[in-house]
Amino acid sequence: MTDTSDIRPAESAAVQQPPRRLLHRLMRRIPLIAPVLLWAVPCWVLLYTGQHWPPPVAPAGTALFVLGLVGMPLAMTHGHGRRRRDRAAIVGDTLLGTSWVLFAWSVLLGVVLRLALTVAGVGESEDRARIVTWAVLGVSAVLLGWGYAEARRVPRVRRLDVRLPRLGTGLDGLRVALITDTHYGPLDRARWSARVCETVNTLEADLVCHTGDIADGTAERRRAQAAPLGTVRATRARVYVTGNHEYYSEAQGWVDLMDELGWEPLRNRHLLLERGGDTLVVAGVDDVTAESSGLAGHRAHLAGALDGADPDLPVLLLAHQPKFVDRAAAAGIDLQLSGHTHGGQIWPFHHLVRIDQPALAGLSRHGARTLLYTSRGTGFWGPPFRVFAPSEITLLVLRSPHPPTSP
């Protein structure tokens, strides 16, 4: 997927301020409004839009939705709050994913399918309502089962060639493997982690990159799941940058563990990768949320990452969030690798992701020189489902505009 776009000029502060204030007010209310909508809308569509169910059905169904509405935030609080109870987190995350799928398809089928049935003259109003109900339940059940299998499987490898105009011929064919957003968490995925690392090793990459969000939880708590990362092989280097989730869970502990496992944390610094007489600058920055974490020395500092690098050399930059590409393009970076978006993870959440990020997945151009590759992620966050947003392990083969000729 290639999406070419130019950097838009920044709007004036006067124009931006009112929408930002309105957005901030809405964001503060989302934790209160969203759970109610996620459970109330499916309840109404499935039980109270003309179906005329037998007496026990509607009250029992309503009680089930109320239980979900009350239980989900309670489980999320116990699972992801101070207590960090993994079983509660699993319940809360699963309820969140289930409610989102039910909500999305209740809205879509509740409007589109009902309208189509009406136009087609299918049955009475009650017949159409029951068809919609069973369609919502059937589609949701299939998508949740399939989405769970998609989330838990080892990602397929996505391969693509990326041509960089400034890349020297000696570096043509350099193989870069990218994993990101592994999100080791409440569900124990140590075996999955080992299989992911085995798959990465089959790629015989020169450079292996992890662009953050290793886990949800501290390095001490998720060590067993992260340990297989120490088995990853690269002919040149293994490099890592922090994601936003590290800053929810003692980021320095993750930096130290990755260093212990043999990965080189690129915290606002770079290394030089040389081959065939040509050189590539491989740089990395902390996540854009690092500075607000309050951790000393943690911030996204591109100038520091490039300090001392020859400006005529091509630069590969690791930055967790795609929106860092505005700064990368201004600095003339050749290629930025990012994750963070999960490709939306559960359709149609990608529409909300696009509000915050300039790219959802794949390769895109920003400004005159800069390319951005956004991975859909290797693992999943929270709800153990992936719906129309498959995970990936990425192999990027860097190409020079003038590849070496065969002897």
UniProtKB/TrEMBL annotation:
Domain Calcineurin-like phosphoesterase: 174-343
SUPFAM superfamilies documented for this protein: Metallo-dependent phosphatases (SSF56300)
CDD domains the UniProt entry points to: MPP_YkuE_C
Single Gene Ontology MF annotation: metal ion binding
Transmembrane segments: 30-50, 56-76, 88-111, 131-149
UniProt protein name: Metallophosphoesterase
Keyword annotations: Hydrolase, Membrane, Metal-binding, Transmembrane, Transmembrane helix
Matches recorded under Pfam families: Metallophos
GO biological process, one term: lipid A biosynthetic process
GO CC, one annotated term: membrane
